[in-house]
Amino acid sequence: MRILKSILVAVLLISCCFSQKMVAQKDINLFPKPVNLVLKEGVFQFSKNTKFVVNNDSQKEIATALISKFGQSAGWIPEISTKIPKSNYIQFKVNESLKNEAYKLEVTTKSIVISAKGNAGFIYGLESIRQLLPTAIESKKLVSNVKWEIPSVIITDEPRFQWRGLMLDLSRHFFDKNYIKETIDRLAMLKMNVLHLHLVDDQGWRIEIKKYPKLTEVGAWRVNQENLIWNSRLAVNPDEKGTYGGFLTQEELKEIVKYAQSKNIEIIPEIEMPAHVSSAIASYPELACFNQRIGVPSGGVWPITDIYCAGKETTFEFLQNVLDEVMTIFPSKYIHIGGDEATKTNWSKCPHCQKRIKEEGLKDVNELQSYFVKRMEKYINSKGKKVIGWDEILEGGLAPDATVMSWRGTKGGIEATEQGHNVIMTPDSHCYFNFYQGPQNEEPLAFDAYLPLRKVYDFDPVVDSMTPNQAKHVLGGQANLWAEYLSNPDDSEYMIFPRLAALAEAVWSPKEARNWNNFIDRLPYLLERYDYLGVNYAKSAYLVTASYTADLDKKTVKVALKNELQKTDIRYVLGDKSVVEKASKFIDPIAINETTIVKASLFENDKPTGKTFIDTIQFHKAFGSKLKFKSPYNDNYKGDEPLSLVNVIRGSKNFHDGQWQAWLVNDMEVVVDLEKTQTISQVTVGSIENQGAGIYFPTAVKVLVSADGVTYKEVQQVLRPFAINSNSELKDFKIKFDKLNIRFVKVIATNLKKSPKGEDSWLFIDEILIN
Q1: For residue 391, what are the contacts with CB-CB under 8 A and spacing of at least 6?
Q2: Does an H or E element contain 15, and which?
Q3: Which residues of 674-698 are buried (b: 16+ CB within 10 A; e: fewer)?
């Protein structure tokens, strides 16, 4: 890793060479930040003679997690004992007065004592010891010349919230047992205690149900369209056999549950209902209103109309049988039943559903969904469990004892707490890890929204407007990682880390103790650990990005450089020079008035580190020219109107960045008035394609010219027939021709009109460059 390389080297030196003089508060880098830490003089040194003193087998298992790391990295294994020696030991001490997950850690030169009420506190105390040790403790190979010591401290610590979770979506793309167990390890490291498994959705049923074998024989497999962007994938024939997917057996899930319990992590299963169940209906068509035969969708489905029939008794019999098997696997207190995004058009037409509405005295299909949820909650409650649902379960009236998971912002959570219901806050604005975390041009394909590390860190599950009584109903917070664009563990890890560390601190540490600059100062130490562990974390927070402002009157563009960190040293050069040579420190926006290459980098100790930012500001003869459109651009995508297409500022892969103008179905036809006769020989039209979002390159770009603005002559065109494109891509369409002396240039970009799925298509343009 090159990002902050010099800092990380210093980190390793510091962590390997603790001494009474060197250790300072700033050298202690725990995640999440503890409630209280007092630094004392001296260090405790681990050796092959160190003993772990335990009281029972469960404590022995907890101790083994750290002992095994010494075996790999130090080459020796401390002994486990039930007797307390005179010195050089780590003792597990039961203290019934502490809260369930609280712990106290007392480190002296002679001993370490972890006090806790039970296993959770001992696990977290040991995780803190692990993070106090040199980062090399994470090495899977023997490391030499390391002093395995930690500073003398007294830590008293407990979580702010009882629910500290991560949701993994196993349906959109399947992740196996091994990856789930690795994720459990990383959750425990950050003192997280919930792993929510999204086991059922339209695109795959991932849990073995022995009473209904077709759920995994059919529902776990879909037709392979992985070469297409998620939302551009085509409908499948129900007779075409699926080959892409997978599922977890009940034995595998029991193994995962047992492993998670050893780390104080509760596995929450989610069995979606009444929507997001195409995979179940593909397996058993009679579960739908009209017994319709469908295939397991290969990609995005919207609106979601193939949902369980709420009028048939057999639907509830099926779900109760499924849940009976689910509850034998998962001992969790909660069962998540989804409840989101149900389009009820079939319910409005279904005789079974209409009969149910009449018999139950319901007002409409919204109340029918409430009936559905309440009925399933009653059954789940009868088994000693509680229901969690997405905030849509509020529609039509909330089930009596249901817990709401508020994802559409915080409104649902606020409403639920007003009614006296418990909530888990997981607003997409702060907790959806499927969103981009850095500049889209530099990031792998993700959902078209932005959630940087800083915004995750700013998350607070308690909304300012809540009363103290409402706040008592907030159980905590959770990150959600939807997997439409994540086909393998590396992709998944990239989206989770290090954002999960920011969220962990938001739900564990006291609000008043949190500080962004302090978090960023500690982060390199955590990233060093992730390097040893082989975690594919994102470095997006360190990337240099630019924002641009055009002054059309002065014909200049100002460039501002930044990254997510504060007080960072960003330096830049203009032109072809290397960023190493004579780079200037960025202080104020850089004014540019001619075509220029801008290069910039984050500097540490006067050396560039990380990826170099490079962009070309390309001036052209149409800069600031008057434009006349035949068809106006769409109101939702106005760009930097009215002269967005000739302001020199280019759009990014984030088509919401304010630089794109768009046309739905219509062609773009615009006349550029250069205001005086000029010699030109090239017109360049910038466009973007994101087939998943319904945005397509123009199928043709045509250039016509005129001396008087009345009579036009076509000079050239380029064709670009539709082609499958599985990426988001920027493209310049260049039309070259012999030199002409003209004043007016007409540019026509032809819209695809209809996508392969039959939907209206978008055409996006960011700039028309004339030279």
Answers
A1: 340, 404, 405, 406, 407, 408, 411, 412, 413, 415, 416
A2: helix 5-16
A3: beeeeebeebbbbbbbbbbbbbbbb
Which two tokens mark 520? 């960023």
For the purposes of burial, counting CB atoms within 10 Å of the CB of 543, is it exposed (0-12), middle (13-18) or buried (19 or more)?
A: buried
Peptide bond into 303 cis (omega under 30): yes
CA distance 514 to 531: 25
Q: Is 293 helix (H, G, I), strand (E, B) or coil?
A: coil
Residues, the chain: 771
- Residues with catalytic function: 201, 276, 341
Name the nearest CA neighbour of 396 among 463, 473, 345, 342.
342
Q: What percent of the chain has pLDDT over 90?
A: 89
Residues 6+ apart with CB under 8 A from 65: 126
**How far is Cα of residue 40 from the mean position of the Cα atoms in its chain?**
39
Angle 516-533/499-508 helices, nearest 10 degrees? 130
pLDDT in tens, 527-584: 999 999 999 999 999 999 999 999 988 899 999 999 988 778 999 999 988 888 789 9
Identity at 761, one-letter amino acid code: S
> CA angle, 405 as apex, 474 and 344 as ends, to 5°?
150
Give me the residues paired with residue 568 across strands.
none
pLDDT, tens only, 200-243: 999 999 999 999 999 999 999 999 999 999 998 999 999 999 99
722-727 long-range contacts, Cβ below 8 Å, gap at least 24?
Answer: 722/696, 722/752, 722/756, 724/227, 724/228, 724/232, 724/691, 725/229, 725/689, 725/691, 725/697, 726/227, 726/228, 726/229, 726/691, 727/229, 727/445
Using DSSP's 3-state secondary structure scheme, residue 593 falls into coil
Name the residue with tokens 């992740």: 175
Q: Are 524 and 8 in contact (CB under 8 A)?
A: yes
Q: Please give the backbone phi and psi of residue 514, each rounded to the nearest 5 degrees, phi first.
A: -80, 140
Q: 12 pLDDT exceeds 50?
A: no
Tokens at 278, concatenated: 């195409």
Q: What is the pTM of this model?
A: 0.91
Distance separating alpha carbons of residues 527 and 539, to the nearest angstrom: 9
Judge contact between 747 and 670, C-beta under 8 A. Answer: yes
Residue type, 171: S
Query: Angle, nearest 10°, between helix axes 57-73 and 119-132?
Result: 20
Quick one: average pLDDT of 509-534? 95
- CB–CB of 102/121 below 8 Å? yes
pLDDT, tens only, 467-504: 999 999 999 999 999 999 999 999 999 999 999 999 99
- If we measure between CA atoms, which residue out of 94, 54, 57, 58 comes closest to residue 78? 54
Two tokens at 334?
């909660």
The residues near 96 (Cβ < 8 Å, ≥ 6 apart) are 117
Distances (CA, A) of 308 to 287, 315, 327, 344, 369: 6, 7, 21, 10, 11
- Is it the case that residue 1 has pLDDT exceeding 90? no
- pLDDT at position 565 is 84
Residue-level pLDDT at 23: 60
Type of residue found at 399: A
- From the centroid of its chain, how far is CA 137? 28
Q: How far apart are CA 153 and CA 139, in angstroms?
A: 24
- The whole-chain average pLDDT of the chain stands at 94
**Residue ranges of E strands in 305-412:** 334-338, 386-390, 403-406
DSSP structural state of residue 329 = H
Residues of the chain with pLDDT > 70, as a percent, come to 97
Q: Tell me the CA distances in angstroms from 454 to 496, 570, 575, one per residue in order.
A: 14, 18, 32
Closest CA to 187 of 291, 271, 104, 264: 264
- For tokens 């905030």, the residue is 391
Is residue 561 within 8 Å of 617, Cβ to Cβ? no
Residue 11 pLDDT: 41
Which of the four pLDDT bands, split at 50, 70 and 90, describes residue 14?
very low
95: DSSP letter: -
Q: How far apart, in whole angstroms, are the C-alpha atoms of residue 183 and residue 162?
A: 19
Q: Tens of pLDDT along 716-738?
A: 999 999 998 888 999 999 999 99
